[in-house]
Write a sequence for this structure.
């Protein structure tokens, strides 16, 4: 596969778009996790119990699964420029409301709403896919995802100091409000300086919105099946907040949410039928077909890569502390290396995908991930600390490089639906986090790592059925003519 270098020191053309877009993602994640490093101050201000803190953390991610799907539809319909600018603009005001909160209920409501900014990743995937050719799209998507994802680490590193500079009991409020100001300003910068596509290119949109298009009867049923885990994950989050766990939601309200989830799945099924009923009565021309199985395999791949990353980052500091009898600060610093690897690993996964082939790269990286988690399942106090850290960092590389390899393929499946495909794939990352953290609540760390390794092996088998992007894909121009787009 041919490969063209990317000059990151340029600030023109598609490189300018790449920089503007990863900064937007960076700010989005900076906002999404702006509460975490300030939680001790928030807890003191509102006299929150441990249970209430846990519930607040869950609320921050609860909406992210459906938000990925909704944002994916919006970006395909309206384009990345308007969607990203609008999301940052609206999120800035939610940050202000969170900073001004005078009750626990307001904290919960605003954190719940900020789940939407956690789905911002989807927007840039479509934007980068529009601006970069197939031979560069992997590394470009990797840079976007890896550098933007660092926003969460930047929040953890900087916001406690910012709050300290402001000083006083309300320092945390000013720190969080400052992140809202940054998002507000950048929403206008992004709108002013970006365009959906290069000059002369067409922004292809789905024929309908409300559900993803499929091109065969079997894919119709497969699509309905793949929607179920997303609702199941939301049901698990509801269960965690319900009377049998954190007891934040009473039994009546918990039952209402369960009924709502079932109703939403029924509604989405009706939407899928509305948009795709024609596949039961007519044959889709070969030139316009795509295999939904490729979307499903990418979903599962992101479940074991990004899903495991979110889960492991959540438990790793405590794991190091308990296993090696470290202080909280020492354990946190050592565990932070897992997230820091994003800066190089995710672009590296995209580079491997561009250079050595999509399917081959994903196979090698998920295989490495499985081995990495298997080795981590054997870490115990008899290990030397440097060896344990090195093993963790090596595993982290395969995890995040695998994420880069997944999204090196997403823009090549079907151009006009890239947002929806990216949205569903991104949602599966959160599904994985919910699933793995639920497992972790019942087992010891060793078994937890082993479960992820087994899930990775199952995914590795599925990846062997992935179709390597080849040749060209067809999209219909506004005037009805067909345009062929290179995917290899």
């Amino acid at each position: 596969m041919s490969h063209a270098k990317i000059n990151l020191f340029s600030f023109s053309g598609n490189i300018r778009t790449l920089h503007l877009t990863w900064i937007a993602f960076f700010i989005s994640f900076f906002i999404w996790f702006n509460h975490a490093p300030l939680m001790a101050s928030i807890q003191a201000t509102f006299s929150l119990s441990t249970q209430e803190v846990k519930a607040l953390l869950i609320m921050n991610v609860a909406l992210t699964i459906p938000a990925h799907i909704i944002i994916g539809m919006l970006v395909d319909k309206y384009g990345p420029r308007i969607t990203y600018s609008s999301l940052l603009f609206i999120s800035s005001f939610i940050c202000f409301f969170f900073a001004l909160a005078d009750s626990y209920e307001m904290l919960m409501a605003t954190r719940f709403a900020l789940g939407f900014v956690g789905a911002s990743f989807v927007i840039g995937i479509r934007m980068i896919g529009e601006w970069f050719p197939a031979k560069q799209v992997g590394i470009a998507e990797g840079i976007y995802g890896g550098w933007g994802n660092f926003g969460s680490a930047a929040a953890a590193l900087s916001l406690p100091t910012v709050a300290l500079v402001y000083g006083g009991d309300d320092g945390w409020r000013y720190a969080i409000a400052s992140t809202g100001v940054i998002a507000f300003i950048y929403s206008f910068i992004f709108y002013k300086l970006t365009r959906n596509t290069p000059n002369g290119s067409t922004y292809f949109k789905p024929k309908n919105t409300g559900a993803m298009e499929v091109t065969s009867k079997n894919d119709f049923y497969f699509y309905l099946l793949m929607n179920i885990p997303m609702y199941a994950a939301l049901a698990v989050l509801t269960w965690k907040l319900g009377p049998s766990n954190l007891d934040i939601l009473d039994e009546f309200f918990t039952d209402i949410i369960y009924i709502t989830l079932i109703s939403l799945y029924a509604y989405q099924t009706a939407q899928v039928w509305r948009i795709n009923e024609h596949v039961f009565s007519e044959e889709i021309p070969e030139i316009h077909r795509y295999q939904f199985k490729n979307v499903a395999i990418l979903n599962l791949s992101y479940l074991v890569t990004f899903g495991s990353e979110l889960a492991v980052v959540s438990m790793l500091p405590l794991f190091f502390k308990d296993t090696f009898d470290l202080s909280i600060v020492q354990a946190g610093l050592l565990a932070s290396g897992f997230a820091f690897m994003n800066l190089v690993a995710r672009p590296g996964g995209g580079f491997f995908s561009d250079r050595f082939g999509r399917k081959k790269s994903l196979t090698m990286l998920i295989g490495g991930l499985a081995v990495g988690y298997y080795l981590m399942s054997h870490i115990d106090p008899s290990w030397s600390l440097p060896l344990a850290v090195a093993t963790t960092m090596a595993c982290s590389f395969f995890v995040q490089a695998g994420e880069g390899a997944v999204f090196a393929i997403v823009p090549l499946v079907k151009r006009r639906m890239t947002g929806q495909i990216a949205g569903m794939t991104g949602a599966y990352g959160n599904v994985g986090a919910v699933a793995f953290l639920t497992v972790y609540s019942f087992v010891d760390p060793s078994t937890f790592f082993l479960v992820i390794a087994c899930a990775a092996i199952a995914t590795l088998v599925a990846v062997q059925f992935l179709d390597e992007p080849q040749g060209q894909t067809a999209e219909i121009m506004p005037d009805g003519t067909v345009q062929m787009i290179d995917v290899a």
User: Anything to note?
Assistant: The domain at 1-203 is CATH 1.20.1250.20 (Growth Hormone; Chain: A;). The chain is about 70% helix and 0% strand.
